[in-house]
Amino acid sequence: MFHIFQYRPLRLITQTSLSSMCLKPMLSRPVAFAQIWKSWFSSHFLLGNKNIILMGPPGAGKTTIGRIVGQKLDCPVIDVDDDVLETTWNMSVSEKLKDIGYEEFLEEEGKALLKFSASGSVISLSGSNPMHAAGMQHMKKNGIVVYLDVPTTVIMSRLKSMEVDRIVGLSPCNSLKDILQFRKQFYKRWYDIRVLCGEDVAAEVVAEKVLDAVKRYQDSELETFISTRSGRSGRSMEEDSHKYFSDVVVQGLAPDGGLFVPERGLPKFTAGEWQGLIEATYVERAEVILERCIHPADIPASKLAEIIATAYGENFSCSKIAPVRHLAGNQFLLELFHGPTASFKDFALQLVPHLFAYCIPRSCNYLILVATSGDTGSAVLDGFSRLHDTDKQRIAVMNFFPEDGVSPIQKSQMIGCQKENAWSVGVKSDFDFCQTAIKQIFTNSNFTGFLTVEYGTALAAANSINWARLLPQIVYHASAYLDLVHQGIIPFGSPVDICIPTGNFGNILAAFYAKMMGIPIRKLICASNGNNVLTDFIRTGVYDLRGRKLISTFSPAVDILKSSNLERYLHVIANEDGQLVTQLFNQLENQGHFQLQKELLEKLQQDLVAGWCSEEDCLAAIHSVYSTTGYILDTHTAVAKVVADRLQDRTCPIIISSTAHYSKFAPAILRALRIAEINQDPLSQLHLLSSYSALPPIHWGLLETLKKTGNGDHQVCAADMSVLMYHIETLIQNHFM
Question: By the number of CB atoms within 10 A of the CB, which of 284, 503, 538, 572 ranks highest?
Fold first, then answer.
């Protein structure tokens, strides 16, 4: 991995260099010498020739924090306002602004920056410096730009108390709030590192955060990934499995069959940092959270912000992206269906294709393999089809789904989402076969090696086994909690419960990760349908597939018996004991069951409770909620609603994840609403549902996709590994050769 200062050899301290450091005689003692050496080494490694450049709005505390950082590093401190601009102009900044006006001031300020140079210093920019592109490009060449991100309301309060009445751009036509919001786009353009600064955080604390952030920026070695089946040292039983984020996005599954997880765990946010995001938009929250989870050596902050803006822009029909709606009593719905394919999978799969395209080497083509129980397929197909044309030429998608195990509308959607680089294949089996087959294909080195040598094509995964799929889901769980605080439902710090319809354990795992990162979640409620292996496991500690057959239900996305992401959760509560995780999942694979030790089960039950819902209760819940509120739940959300009603204790709010739009399951919804005759045509079913004028309205993207589908076709194959591999090779030949 690339390191900023690797190219600089460390200079040894000689007698000459010691004297140049102005050491007093008393400092020749061993302890004092060690202190000076430590200070010099820290400063030299952290800075070298580079500057630490502090950027942020007026009132962010750049000057004060810069002085503290400079003192800690024992290096020069430069304040652009005092030491550059006023020295150059021989007048105060406010006088200059008053003298020449806003636009000319920005130009003169930029010219002064262009003439300025420094190295090994801490530099505090003015609040308006980032608005001059050439000046910032000049500064950035020899500096690490640190954005002190302070909530706008805090800045306005500070400026008022400081009696600041003149900042660049302020006029009767532009309010202070408008100017601060306008400037954010420039700060986001230039920064390398963001440091969150809350209202009551002392400057000394912020300075330490700056130093920690700079150290992280320089050392990507701290953020490696290991397999859930690695030993405690991080070494796999097969090979050294340390990887970086860009590696795990591309590789998907670890070579030993385990799943990738961050070796040092997820970043922790302080309560103050979370509170600083209460007023933020969904996109802003996503930027902050994902920056802390993805090292800038893998994806720079500016590029990540660009990807997030693309993913959550016009593709979502609701400006709030993931709004929280009050349902009844202490129950709230987190609406996760406003993306283009009407399910929660869009949150990851509008983002992941762009992360993937950025991370992969340009010298190789990639085929993404996907197994879906319903919603993932159309979301993957849609997401990867939105890549730039040059990326679509080297990245293709093949989606395998159970031919008779998804709803008619879901199947129509997957057919309709096929594009020039995205195809669907129906398999005459269930989801568990599809998922197991893909895992076996990835670990078949003969087949994957053949594809690489013969066709220059590598395989990759976009299922929730891919680490990058989980990160965007953490964002919406955290955002839902912050929205409840913002709406005045709860004060920050009060707990909530979260209830999630659960199949592959990815969504509920993301909520658990949000809890680990500091969101006050009390209990995670796992809601199952008749395929209730997880309910039994959480209650008893026994994961037993013996004698179980998958049942087709009205909630097909959770028609799953082998929950892949459970492995990541067990890795956490087992204190990263990869040997134990390997033992458990080998036993599951070979014998069809495993049992947790008592202490692990007790740990699990501190986080999780579980229940399941019958088909009759699912339909009854849809009818009941519609009758009392006019709101239509989809079948998966209805499963969660039933379980939430049974398990919640009503001592705190409960957020129910509404994971899909009811339009996708029109036959079941119409049955729940007690419609006697149901037309088999999916488009007719949606038109009938729209006549109810219910909340939420019919999903726009789904309706458009079905209109375009018409008599679209797709391939169907037998449940045979060799047949699946034949389809993969044929697709590669047709698309890449």
Answer: 503
Can you give the residue ranges of every domain in the chain?
51-219, 245-315+342-468, 324-339+487-709
The Cα–Cα gap between 85 and 79 comes to: 9
Counting every residue, how long is the chain? 737
Contact 592, 672 (CB under 8 A): no
For residue 49, give both structure tokens. Answer: 């020739």
Cα–Cα distance for residue pair 416/706, rounded to 1 Å:
7
Which numeric CATH code is attached to 245-315+342-468?
3.40.50.1100
> CB of 286 within 8 A of CB of 194?
no
Q: How far apart are CA 144 and CA 217, in angstroms?
A: 9
Give dist(CA 457, CA 214) in Å, integer: 37
CA dist 688 and 675 (Å) reads: 10
C-alpha span between 86 and 179 (Å, rounded): 23
- For the question of residue 345 being annotated catalytic, the response is yes
Q: Where do runs of H (alpha helix) occur along 219-315?
A: 245-251, 271-275, 282-293, 301-311
Contact 150, 280 (CB under 8 A): no
Q: Does domain 324-339+487-709 have CATH number 3.40.30.10?
A: no
**Residues with Cβ within 8 Å of residue 515, at least 6 apart in sequence:** 521, 524, 607
Residues 224, 83: Cα–Cα separation, whole Å: 41
- pTM score: 0.89
- Per-residue pLDDT tens digits for 334-360: 999 999 999 999 999 999 999 999 999
Give the pLDDT confidence of 180-226 residue by residue, as tens digits: 999 999 999 999 999 999 878 899 999 999 999 999 999 888 899 99
- Report residue 345 as tokens: 């999978």
Distance of CA 431 to the CA centre of its chain: 25
